[in-house]
Amino acid sequence: MSEIDISKLPKGGKGFAHDFAADQTIFKGVPWGKAMMWIFLLSDTFIFSCFLISLMTARASTTAEWPYASEVFGLEVLGT
Hints:
mainly alpha, 55% helix, 0% strand
């Protein structure tokens, strides 16, 4: 893989546009698999944070009691 001379890249707004104008230049020498793993981890963290915040908001917004987990998941199998 060829090394990229960071000092030759444009600065400021032009540099920002230059970063997103080509395929892998935004990662500047980072292996593609490593960059995609970090993007996956960040997006996964964001999604599960949204799920947890939604659950906490739903539980905090109601005045009714939530059912007991032992009653909800206490299934009887074959009459036992």
